[in-house]
Amino acid sequence: MTTLTIHGAAGQMGRRLVALATEDERFEVAAAIEYAGHDAMGTDAGLLAGCGDIGIPLADRLDRHTDVIIDFSTPGATRLAMEAGLEYQCGMVVGTTGLQAQDHAAIDEAAKRIAILQAPNMSLGINLLFELAAQAATRLGEDYDIEIVESHHRYKKDAPSGTALGIAEAICRATGKSLDEHVVHGRHGDDVPRQRGQIGMHALRLGDLAGRHTTSFATPGEELQLTHIATTRDVFARGALTASAWMAGRPSGRYRMADVLGL
User: Fold this and answer.
1) Catalytic-labelled residue, pool 7, 152, 182, 228
2) Most CB atoms within 10 A, among 30, 35, 69, 87?
3) Active site residue 185
4) Fold of the domain spanning 124-230
5) Tens of pLDDT along 46-60?
6) Selected catalytic residue, list 38, 65, 156, 202
7) For residues 252 and 112, what is the distance between their CA atoms, to the nearest angstrom?
């Protein structure tokens, strides 16, 4: 059985992770962490998740080893989770979005000592989409325009989504392009025709959408669309749990969801 620490356990994703892990015989929720001063500190994590008392109160720090820490929090809190992971030699699955270059550098450094899987989206389907988008861009070539449109609920803070950037990164890696040089975020003005080789990026915020990502490849006469639609946030939690089961006992290093899928 894989023992889990849920970091960010009182958040929307954290509560679903607690509930789904409690139902899954592969896992034991051994710790539930939130920031110091959280209103629910000390409350049983199972009660917060709506799955009944599991005997694990919400705490503000980890004080023991668990097989894997699942982190869905904020970039600053992720750094604290890595410190705990290093101290207690826990594997980590990081699903926090909005990470910056310095955060990825910190993950790279920590991964020299512990196993860390970080992904902008934990859905198995979206991670397959990364591979499909990269293949499409490579095989179709420069004659095909590429546009990425992501849609999320009205409360999402970061834009574009980490998933949309993940699609663009996969395409750039496959085609030798650069995010900074080739990705164009929206268009505005009187003279902004598409330039050859650009990757367009657009963000929509609508109602309560869990997530929709469409990558279009078009040339005069045809268009290919690759679309992933998440109808519930549980798909991200289930993907994180699948990754955690795979990560338990792995040697130190930085891993991707592609590794879990065998891509």
Assistant:
1) 152
2) 69
3) no
4) Dihydrodipicolinate Reductase; domain 2 (3.30.360)
5) 999 999 999 999 999
6) 156
7) 6
